[in-house]
């Protein structure tokens, strides 16, 4: 497996595009994107666990259930979440998939049904969805589609995101090179199960629905669901993985070495996107990685790591490059997992080094100056050992800054 | 029942005092306080649910178990949490209670045992406790005790608190006037079960241990445990309620009208202290009250109200006086309680008026200008109806401001 350049258009047979249709007030920012596969795709998807679900989430879930997991395209917008918008919102989401299906069918002289198109939205909640803007922009959107349209489609789903978050990997399956590419949007309202995020992943691998679904769940649990920016789980979270089989590899249809290698490559891409989202968390100045080892089992390690990642006080200390490890112990203590404080070790680390600050639940002497230097980097790590068990997990987050408060104090304006 | 002036010294027979002994680096701030009852007290207490418990919490819990709930005094300090301090921390906490017991016994020519003294600490975690400072300050502390020492004792437990949070109420029990007084400390690391808070409540009522304990649990659940400042549950949370019986009322020994009236008065005081803590939340510019009605039961309403109070995005919107009610719906949706978004109403309110913003889960037109005015006050309310059930609950929180990040970016320095 190796990382390669590109994103959702890196695998064979995927086109993408993006335009400004007027959902956002901005006169320049793109707000409508489309990803299309030249061949029908096996698809797997995961959606928000929030009881309040956006219209786009409800419609995409319905479509995937109707087709048993077949997709041709995903249409996505920013500037309006189409959540808490009632029946009108549902009609708008359905119309978006219908427009895409009709126009793509006409352009490619094929028949794509409405339910072979998924829809995803991000932006402000509770504002009527301006579906007229989508209608009038549809021809331009179709015209924008190319096999180099990744960037335009990605821009079209960005809101408070500052950086583009994408990537691609390739690996050999049964002697054939297959590729997986992805893009993601997400900067705030991000908390596991799932992050406020839209993520679209494409692959040209031939793989069965069951295997694709299993691989996606495995990877989302160990990447996006271990990310927290602000503890808020959004109404719109969506991860869609589409596999069109155009690589021509011997199909992956059951667990085994080829499935494992595909899943490992997919996880590597998901972790890359997760880290990019943490790094681009609203207002974030640092990516914070929390590693917990020695727990009784992986689930306990996961709960502990996520509790530390989500602590406002730990996040604020990271902003201040303050080696306040007592807050780390505190966040471990309220995670709701059995914990013996007397067996907890903590150290802070960055690429340049590591400094132990707590051993067996009590302080070890350390140089405040060295700790400050280590915590001042753009990427820092909190390494925690809680005992001698086999459970390990990594979670990702970011620091809490003035800028986060500024961004979210008046998001709608 | 009526509110009266004063705090823990308002009930008969309670003395308090506070001094600077040198635990804090400050040359002027008090850091050691003591509350003492001239008669033995029946006592009830609740402590943090964090698995990492401060030495003071462990020692106080042990003492109350040993005596079956008898207390004479509470010694408390700020500037050092005495948490994650190992065996040395436990010895220091025990020594604090012993010093108080010995000095109080000598001064009042009585015998007070170590375990009739509780201890509470607040401040930085994981720094060796400077017990020598307490030893050398002990005589001055005893000398400072008066029946007007409430303010000095309260100052001695304040850390990032800006305002003093105290109060007292009186009521008649069986024709006799009894009084309940309290003080609390808490501004950050505050989240239900319990807030990072120290709270000491005194009463001269005669009341059995069982009734006192039951009343305290009833009231803490509906006050302090519905408060959130930053989602972090501390290692040191302590609420101690001491009843010395000096009012001479017919003792309350079983549930009934007198028990109910005592509990109602205690709840009123606890809610007052809770609101004061929310108002004084680290960096807070507004007290935010969240009321949920129409839930299936009280516990569901409580979970929903606390989820909204804890949402960083709701808190940041309150800071910006931004009527972003979609974030309220979102926080209700991920609370983990059954919810039909189609039956949710939301309005924003202040003392001057109320403005509905969402009805049946969808927007209602409203004046942004009016909403901005309502949300710009120092005390605002988010009123939520989720259905037609009998469950109601109120939670309290505050906005998320630049100042919170500043305070917590470098707390230790």
Explain the layout of strands and helices.
Two copies of one chain form a homodimer.
Chain A (H helix, E strand, L loop, with lengths): L1 E3 L9 E6 L12 E16 L7 H13 L2 E9 L7 H23 L8 E6 L8 H13 L6 H7 L8 E9 L2 E10 L12 E6 L5 H13 L16 E6 L13 H23 L7 E9 L2 H13 L1 H8 L5 H9 L11 E6 L2 E7 L2 E2 L4 H8 L3 E7 L5 E8 L3 H8 L4
Parallel strand pairs in A: 4-5, 8-9, 10-14
Antiparallel strand pairs in A: 1-6, 2-3, 3-4, 3-9, 6-7, 7-8, 10-15, 11-12, 11-14, 12-13
Summarize this structure briefly.
Chain A is α+β, with helices and mostly antiparallel strands and 413 residues long. Chain A has 11 helices and 15 strands.
How big a fraction of the residues of chain A is strand? 25-35%
CATH architecture annotation name of the largest domain in chain A:
4-Layer Sandwich
End-to-end distance of chain A, in Å?
A: 44 Å
The low-confidence runs of chain A, each spanning 5 or more residues with pLDDT under 50, are none
Total of domains of chain A: 2
- Which two chains have the most extensive interface, and how many residues on each? A-B, 66 and 66 residues
The overall average pLDDT of chain A, rounded, is 89
Instruction: Assign the structural class of chain A, choosing from mainly alpha, mainly beta, alpha/beta, alpha+beta, or little secondary structure.
Output: alpha+beta
List the total number of helices of chain A.
11
- Which of globular, elongated, flat, extended, rod-shaped describes the shape of chain A? globular
CATH class of the largest domain in chain A: Alpha Beta
Oligomer: homodimer
């Amino acid at each position: 497996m190796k990382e390669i350049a590109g994103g959702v258009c890196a695998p064979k047979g995927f086109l993408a595009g993006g335009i400004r249709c007027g959902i956002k007030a901005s006169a320049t920012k793109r707000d409508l994107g489309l990803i299309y596969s030249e061949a029908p795709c096996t698809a797997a998807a995961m959606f928000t666990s929030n009881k309040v679900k956006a219209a786009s989430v409800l419609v995409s879930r319905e479509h995937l259930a109707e087709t048993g997991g077949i997709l041709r395209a995903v249409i996505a917008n920013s500037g309006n979440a189409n959540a808490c918008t009632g029946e009108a919102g549902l009609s708008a989401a359905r119309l978006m998939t219908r427009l895409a299906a009709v126009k793509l069918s006409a352009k490619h002289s094929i028949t794509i049904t409405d339910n072979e198109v998924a829809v995803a939205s991000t932006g402000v909640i509770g504002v009527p969805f301006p579906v007229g803007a989508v209608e009038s922009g549809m021809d331009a959107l179709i015209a924008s589609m190319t096999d180099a349209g990744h960037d335009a489609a990605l821009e079209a789903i960005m809101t408070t995101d500052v950086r583009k978050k994408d990537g691609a990997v390739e690996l050999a399956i049964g002697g054939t090179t297959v590729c997986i590419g992805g893009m993601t949007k997400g900067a705030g309202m991000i908390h596991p199960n799932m992050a406020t995020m839209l993520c679209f992943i494409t692959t040209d691998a031939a793989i069965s629905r069951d295997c694709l679904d299993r691989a996606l769940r495995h990877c989302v649990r160990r990447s996006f669901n271990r990310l927290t920016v602000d503890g808020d789980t959004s109404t719109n979270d969506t991860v869609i993985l589409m596999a069109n089989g155009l690589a021509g590899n011997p199909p992956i249809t059951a667990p085994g070495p080829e499935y494992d290698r595909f899943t490992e490559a997919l996880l590597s891409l998901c972790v890359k996107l997760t880290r990019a989202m943490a790094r681009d968390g609203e207002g974030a100045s640092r990516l914070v990685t929390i590693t917990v080892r020695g727990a009784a089992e992986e689930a306990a390690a996961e709960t502990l790591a996520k509790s530390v990642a989500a602590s406002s006080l730990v996040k604020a200390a990271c902003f201040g490059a303050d080696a306040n490890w007592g807050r780390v112990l505190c966040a471990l203590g309220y995670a709701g997992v059995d914990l013996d404080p007397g067996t907890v070790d903590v150290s802070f680390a960055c690429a340049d080094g590591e400094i132990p600050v707590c051993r067996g639940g009590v302080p070890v002497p350390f140089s405040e100056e060295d700790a400050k230097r280590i915590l001042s980097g753009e990427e820092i790590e909190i390494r925690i050992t809680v005992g001698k068990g086999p459970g390990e997990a990594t979670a990702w987050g970011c620091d809490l800054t003035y800028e986060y408060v500024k961004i979210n104090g008046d998001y709608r304006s």
